[in-house]
Write a structure and sequence with these properties.
alpha/beta, Rossmann fold, 33% helix, 16% strand, globular
Amino acid sequence: MSHIILVHGLGATDKSWFDVPSLLEAAGHTVDAVLLPGSILSGLNDFTAKISSTLRPGNPSVLIGHSMGGVSISQAAAENPDRVSKLIYVTALVPKDGESAGGIIGGLGTSFDKVGNEFDRVGVDRDHPARRFPVFGALMGEFRSSANFADIPKHYVRCTADTVVTPLKQAEMINKWPGTTESAVPAGHIPQKEVPDELSRCLLEAIL
């Protein structure tokens, strides 16, 4: 069984995985849903340090990132390649060397308001513990790859109805790292709320 670390995106919290942690645990895995630092000064380095502190020496972890969490898990894996067994991106941003989350978002033609609208659409109001004011400092840090990062297995879960990271943009993310496998769920940008059972099945299949 695997140790799984779940990493949320911009404007979200560890609670934004909803029922997914318990569904993965029911399959026998150990799951940590990380709450990234929420200070106004927090950035990619702080996010990476938090994820890295959750990794377990001698037991490589599966890192799963949603949305902007894809950049955070990528940097954590680049800095700790021997402690990460797989990267799974859930309709997430995937960086190439030198790219920042802000730079990628700038090419998406999207906005934070669209993320808020998606939370509203699936019935998660602004006072829900899954939501918080976004930490925009995280948009600025540039991803720095490492010698072994390309060798870490990668999987991308596409969301076929996503209007934040559209299917076309998701395809661009998948193509950034050759060998990335993929699966799909019929959902918008927050599949962990909209289709938790289907998402969990995809994640479990990808972990094997």
